[in-house]
Amino acid sequence: MSWGFLRDVLSGVNKYSTGIGRIWVAVVFIFRLLVYMAAAENIWKYEHDEFECNIEQPGCENVCFDHFFPVSHIRFWALQLIVVSAPSLLVVFHVAYRENREKHHNQKLYRNPGERDGGLLCTYLISLILKTGFEIVFLVLFYKLYNGFKVPRLVKCDIRPCPNTVDCYISKPTEKMIFLYFLVATSCLCIVLNLSELSYLICKYSLKRYLKRHKKHQGSKS
């Protein structure tokens, strides 16, 4: 697949984001997408070929690999990047809907189609909630699939057709663990940024409503 499409999507979202949202885009693009493309993808590229067991029993090595690596790391992270970035499209589509609506009516309906107010604010908040939820789901799913955030040097397998318990070795475990921790840490950072932006927008909207109500109340008194 072409990662340029995802880059273009993130660049489009950047125009309608808050300061915190722009930091999120930078983290996803630099610390996740580029690191994934430049390093992490190559580290796990030949994980099946480099997985070795101390037995020549046909099928044993494949079965053990499938047991300990039910989903390829690189495919899992690729899917995570796509799914986590997808809710941002809701904001882009909503802005495009506003712009098309103005063209259809041939008049100015919004002060700024990209301004976060009314329905667009709701769409933006929903996208933040979805992104946070997806990040948490993928972290939990990864933890369940691989029994934690670690890459062991040696795993023991006794699944048929293996005749007995065999030792299987994972290549470059230290290097893989370093990048695993890095990608998990950036995922946690994205969760913190999403929650921070969500809190900021809710507080900003609540304060705006309060000041507007207070000003209206003062005007009615006078």
TrEMBL record:
Q: Which GO terms describe its biological process?
A: cell-cell signaling
Q: Which regions span the lipid bilayer?
A: 21-39, 76-97, 118-143, 178-203
Matching Gene3D superfamilies: Gap junction channel protein cysteine-rich domain (1.20.1440.80)
A GO term for molecular function: gap junction channel activity
**Which keywords, in A-to-Z order, does the entry hold?**
Cell junction, Cell membrane, Gap junction, Membrane, Transmembrane, Transmembrane helix
Q: Which GO terms describe its cellular component?
A: connexin complex
Q: What is its main location?
A: other
Domain named Connexin N-terminal is located at: 42-75
The organism's place on the tree of life at top rank: Eukaryota
Q: How does it assemble?
A: A connexon is composed of a hexamer of connexins.
Write down what this protein is called: Gap junction protein
